[in-house]
């Protein structure tokens, strides 16, 4: 029977820290352009709560921490509106496995706990980035150049950007309503992933120009105080948009994902390489979000076997439990790694764009408490035979006249596959048959 989820309802101080975090991969392109991919579908939230407890309340907090860590490791917590929250309930776990306290006189304690969760609530619509900020800010101009690694008289260098990129660090003090709008904007843009337009107002020390920017960090940290007021800093960096606006939208909305399916008896193992998307349906099958890593395709010295190393999470002992209950049913099972494309707005796969990256059979299973590693092997490099299938007969085995095996480059347009015709065309050196064999042989018994 599964353990019930506990509820964290301890009173904490009015001053605490809230962090929203994404993970974006940014690939630099020519002349300062970039390609961005979100690795996480949903943001990670971390709440660092501070406590000041007497002996009894401190003991209750310790007991809760111990009970959670000894069971599922997760608990429910509601971000109360009177503390600047949204009254949403999150499934959380503790950021650290260590609970440190500063014990005072009479058993009083000062301590803090980090609560971590995935915020999979629907993303709210947002408008423009027009949040008021302090006129005092940090601004910089950046170029990208390469130069000789050793200083010499020549001192060769090359600047790869045609124009500089600007960046800003804006300081903000927000009331609860404005802070929540800023949170929603950051989540809607998925941290560094999506770009947007922003005007550097003259009234705030700017030049009045509108820039195409994105957040320069996947982390938005807010120091929240009484009644939900917050102080924070926002980093913006200028980006060069794609010339075709439609391509810019497609780049922002369609992202690659990889699916792994291991077809074991009694039900398959199906994984999507996403840390925050809990599940995804594809081809009438349910794929679970989990860490999925794979290496490069490796061939052995005689090129008889190609293999791909796969690493899956085994923290929940999912693979171990299968092996423990049914034996090693993973080894020699068929496995397929598929590339798909996900619409980040709907969390649905784009039909017709899937492509099989690798397929084979599982081998060399290795389990520990953190991961399950295995090789997906394709015997004979993906071919059932190492050489083409040949038939021993008098006519030529080349399937198509004038192809690379035939080698004929003349003006003739037809060939009856006989040696006489090949000799007539002067191509007998490339004949792929056995002209001395009988064309028909009858054996009487």
Q: How would you describe this protein?
A:
This protein has 445 residues and is mainly beta. The chain folds into three domains: 6-241, no CATH class; 252-382, no CATH class; 390-445, no CATH class. Helices cover 12% and strands 38% of the residues. Strands 1, 2, 5, 6, 7, 8, 9, 10, 13, 14, 15, 16 and 17 form a 13-stranded mixed beta sheet that branches. Strands 18, 19, 20, 21, 22, 23, 24, 25, 26, 27 and 28 form an eleven-stranded mixed beta sheet that branches. A hairpin with a 5-residue loop joins strand 8 (101-103) and strand 9 (109-118). The chain is extended and about 110 Å long. The protein starts with 5 loop residues before the first strand and ends in a 21-residue tail after the last helix. The model has no long low-confidence stretch (mean pLDDT 84).
Short description:
This protein is mainly β.
Query: How many structural domains can be distinguished in the coordinates?
Result: 3
Radius of gyration: 32 Å
Largest sheet: 13 strands, mixed
Number of helices: 5
Tertiary shape: extended
Number of strands: 28
Mean pLDDT across all residues, rounded? 84
